[in-house]
Amino acid sequence: MKTLIATLLLLAAGAFALRNSSASAKVGGEPTSVPQSNPTDSGAQAMIPVTNIKTCLWFATEAEEAVRFYTSIFAGSKVLGETRWGEGGFGPPGSIISMDFELAGRPFMALNGAQGVAFNDSVSIAVDCASQVEIDALWEKLCAGGKPGQCGWLKDKFGVSWQVVPKELPALLMEKDPVKRKRVIDAMLQMSKLDLARLKQARDGR
Q1: Is residue 190 part of a domain?
Q2: H or E, element range at 139
């Protein structure tokens, strides 16, 4: 499991580098130049101009409780709208069908679908934190009633998986020096909640 999580984090770091630089380091190798795509390249005209994409979270009956919980944690969050059952519906009159909401300005939807559909680690919500203080605060709130995992992963009390990581993690995982990079990875594999200072100490061999 630890090896799997480390691999996923390395791949995520590689994706981050590709998004943010014209040159990206290969995972486990030296930096190499990455050609940038041209919007006028063949196939670009087939792109669909979608105006909004949001993530839908499927709950059994806890959609409203989950939305209230999440929007109480993240600044810049709010409920945008909701739909409820009326008389003759599949749920009790007045109960939630779905809710649209924002977390830190990002759109989400919560749905009360049906029993027997469980969240798992194949889908998670990743939060890039600006400081250790932010990591500590989010970890404590999201873990309340949930379960801490490894390498910055946790499950909240509804079973939703989260990655709470420092913004500096991709740079640490993409360290050019393979010895430093390995020290960072080895240190991370021993952690549940990520400790940015300890990761930097590992990189520097302290």
Answers
A1: yes
A2: helix 132-143
